[in-house]
Amino acid sequence: MAERIALMSEIKVPVLSKSRAVPFLEPGAMAHSKPFPAGPEIQARLGFPDKLVPDWEKVAVNTLGDLVKQSRALRVFLDSCVKCGACTDKCHYFLGTADPKNMPVARQDLLRSVYRRYYTFAGKFFPGLVGARDMTKEVLDDWYSYFHQCSQCRRCSVFCPFGIDTAEISMAARHIMSSVGLGQKYTNEIISKVHNIGNNLGLPEPALADTLASLEEDVKEETGVDVRFPLDIKGAEVLVVTPSADFFAEPHIDGLIGYAKVFHAAGVSWTLSSHASEASNFSMFIGSHSNLQRVAVRIREAAQELGVRRIIVGECGHAWRVAYNYWNTLIGPFDFLDRNYPIPQHICEFTHDLIDRGALRFDKSVNDDKVVTFHDSCNVSRASRMGNHPGGQFTIPRAIIRACCNHFYDMAPETIHEKTFCCGGGGGLLTDDLLELRVKGAAPRMNALRQVVEEHGVNHVAAICAICKSQFAKVLPYYQFPMNMVGSVHGLVSKAIQLGPGN
Ligand code: SF4
Ligand code: SF4
Prior knowledge:
The chain is mainly alpha-helical. The protein is 46% helix and 4% strand. It contains 21 helices and seven strands. The mean pLDDT is 95.
């Protein structure tokens, strides 16, 4: 497989337009798009074969059989599609690439056809009649290409009358591929870094401690206030786990500064952990339960070791999904935490609760240079909740933004809340070897953004997901928007919050 990254000038960027039409089909338009495969060392670290196993066809079919035995949902998803077509034009990758295999139903059929061949009566005896296919190298190549053109965003499932979740099918396919020795470099390398060093960036403890110390100096210089960024403090009330991107650079680090200022203003003791210095858990993207648990368990260990009473998750979309949906069964029970608070709690829930109780003061005018919109991240919107009422994951971040900004406008209703469009880089696709896909897949979101830019003068996109922020910073310039237009919700909080007289 030739390893090559598309040059900026080679990418045909979709034209944004007022009338967003379904594209004319271009069969095979993205067949060439394949991520770099994981090397033998990375595969081995995750417990997968280090190269394609000799009898990979048999292993793939058997692994698929195991997965449908373990997951009733997966079997139902593979059995129940009626080809109604409601999902066909709902995927951002189809809208951006025009490749018909990026229609959700077509993507599902890549796996469904093999499932039918080996696990249904009709497929075993009349394969031609029911679209059943043998597991061949050609099929595997198609899987590697098109299951890495799904960000597992679940938008299609919102429109499917049966709720068929292509994300689950895509996770299963990636798990099968890893299991036969064909893993994806970007995702598996990141998981391997978390196993080895503790976070996605491979940032060791001394570097993390240095970063936090210099943040304390920066904030002191900016505000005159001693805002702490504590690390490994035993007996703190709260353990914060956040994506390691928050330690690193714009547009993430402003968010971390915002969290620290909120804790300072609320007078709640908190700590980060060098053992659990990463909230992200890319194992979900490859459907690997063993790696999911191995990554997640560090957070339980850190919480117990530090003796905290609460765990709060920073701005990270899929990490919040993993925490909200899976932590309890993966690494629970959390009977050692304080049950008077949500377990786990999102940083937005924490800040919003303080705002509701009048415990924070803001000077909104500080953000008057910004006309803000909010990008709902897929995993938060369609795979989790916040607060005590349905839809809290939509209202809470917006309430925080409105508390610290005077100018806020939502994007079009069919592109927000549970119908939000993916940023184009989720699900383990945030890698430059998939840049063409990322740029094209961002088109529907960019089109909705164009509309609020033109109608309301929006000049700032706030988000609560590290992947979304990184993806926007990369693709905004392709659509003639400035890359620094994206920021953290807690970056807005950080600017407007009042810590003492005059700051
Ligand atoms: S889950 Fe998202 S990326 Fe995957 S097929 Fe559905 S809409 Fe497309
Ligand atoms: S909307 Fe659901 S049932 Fe209809 S084609 Fe898509 S996956 Fe199949």
